[in-house]
Amino acid sequence: MSNLDVLLITPPSRLDVYQTLSNEYAAIEPPVWSMLIAKYLSKLNYNVEILDAEANNFSHEQTAESIANKNPKLAVFVIYGQQPSASSQCMPAGTKTCNKLKLIADGGIKTLVMGTHASALPKRTLEEEPYDFVCQGEGPITISNLIDVIKKNKKDYDKVPGLWYRDKDNDIKSTIRSEMFDNLDLQLPGQDWNFLDMSKYKAHNWHTFGRLDTRDKYASLQTSLGCPFKCTFCCINAPFERNTIRFWSAKHIFNQIKTLVEDYGIFNIKIPDEMFVLNPKQVTEICDEIISSGYGKDLNFWAYARIDTLDDNVMLEKMIKSGFKWLGLGIESSNPNVRDGVVKGRFTNYDIEGVVKKVRDMGFNVGANYIFGLPEDNRDSMNETLELALRINSEWANFYSAMAYPGSQLYPLAQKNKWDLPDDKGGPGWIGYSQHSYDTLPLRTNHLKASEVLEFRDRAFDTYFNDNSYLSMIKNKFGVDTQKHISKMSEHKLKRKHQFEDVNY
Asked: CA of 482: how far to CAs of 44, 219, 261, 392, in Å?
């Protein structure tokens, strides 16, 4: 009998999710949530390991065999993605792996799934997926209580908070959600990189423009949980039940940065928080710690911000001194009516262009995020957004098709309006929520079909990354090697099932 209590699993999904971009251009992200949970459980003296099948480049079969060989008392499938909203697109990988595990282990290993998707649709997940249990919520308390029940060889699952399960009559039951941690430093004491082989992770290509040879010196560091905003296209708060944000202390965050720098030689660090640049006091305190250490000259951070959270110049200047080189800005749309329709702040295009110019003049690189196909979008408004993107000419741009992710406010709206969704009967399923997959199926709008939105998004990507002004700026700023890298990337044409065709399930 194995002594392993809990195995935290990242199932392999890169090839299905990113197609040929997965080979060279997509990042390989450290599993942040698995690290948080692993450290929590190890502090309580549970024997825990992480199996990152993505980083190991395992197939579904290899992943299932590895789980079976380790023979944990509980196998936890931690289903998140590279973006906070990307949990649904990774569900098929977990399903394939778990089904193979059930065959290999003959059902002898208990399985639980957790993540944004599972928290948004817990009952449906238990009904449709092969897992024994579903976690609704953050996870650590649910997992620790569940493993105690399993180790006692009892089935009093009703005592495990945040759990969906089947009783002895095969009826679906659920318990009250577990409490949310309010003191992260004490209750969820950060990430432990000792559970991973850090040499296997790779930064986003644009994060290391100008020094692409350093992509394998990479980590992802969570500094807060949740988000106080209510953008209707976002599902980030599904595991947290309410719109709120909690922070680890600046000292705690700095100590983790110190570990990455001194123990692992890692200087490329992503802050995956949905909104890092929000609380000037918190950000400034983190920066002060970094500046005092002298690490700032070598560090290369990127973090998310909003147009309306970048008015504190003292904070921004300290971020520059601390090594924050990239800001991911959620611009979404050029059209204010479209932005208003998804509750995306009260700012104008003048504000957008002014803020972008200001932060770039200060020394930041900008990764601008745009969404095509929001409910009020039409062809004219999407063209306006593309024109804005070309005018801004930021160092990187992400072009997304709008998706009604489970857990977002757009999901019930799409169901009410009877708009085609990937998970409709006869649809492509959860992989259809991937922005880059063959089966991607974006949301239709009040004015456009899904296929029209997808065609525009892909054309916008080609237009932007082949634009002479953009390529010239990249060459001047980062060198000819980076320019060639981008040109090579743009040669990868994504195959699309639903492009140029009507979608009607």
From this structure: 46, 21, 25, 19
Q: What is the pTM of this model?
A: 0.94
User: For the range 448-453, what are the long-range contacts, defined as Cβ-Cβ under 8 Å and sequence gap of 24 or more?
Assistant: 448/373, 448/377, 448/378, 448/379, 449/502, 449/503, 450/373, 450/420, 450/498, 450/503, 451/498, 451/499, 451/500, 451/501, 451/502, 451/503, 452/379, 453/372, 453/373, 453/377, 453/382, 453/401, 453/402
Task: Kindly state the tokens that stand for 273.
Answer: 């928080």
Residue matched to tokens 């059930």:
102
CATH number, domain 6-170: 3.40.50.280
Alpha carbon distances (Å) from 127 to 121, 123, 157, 428, 443: 10, 6, 17, 18, 25
* CA-based radius of gyration for the chain: 22
Nearest to 247 by CA among 229, 273, 268, 265: 273
Tell me how far the alpha carbon of residue 175 is from its chain's centroid. 27
Tokens of 346: 């009260």
One of 3.80.30.20, 3.30.70.20, 3.40.50.2000, 3.90.650.10 is the CATH number of 203-490, namely: 3.80.30.20
Query: Mean pLDDT in each 10-residue stretch from start to end of the chain (505 residues)?
Result: 90 81 81 96 97 94 97 96 75 96 93 95 97 96 97 91 95 94 94 94 95 95 89 82 88 97 96 91 97 95 92 96 96 78 54 94 97 92 95 96 91 91 93 91 92 95 97 98 95 82 53
7/411 Cα distance (integer angstroms): 32
Are the C-beta atoms of 248 and 190 separated by less than 8 Å? yes
Identical topology for domains 6-170 and 203-490: no
Pair type for strands 224-226 and 245-247: antiparallel
Give the residue extent of every domain in the chain: 6-170, 203-490
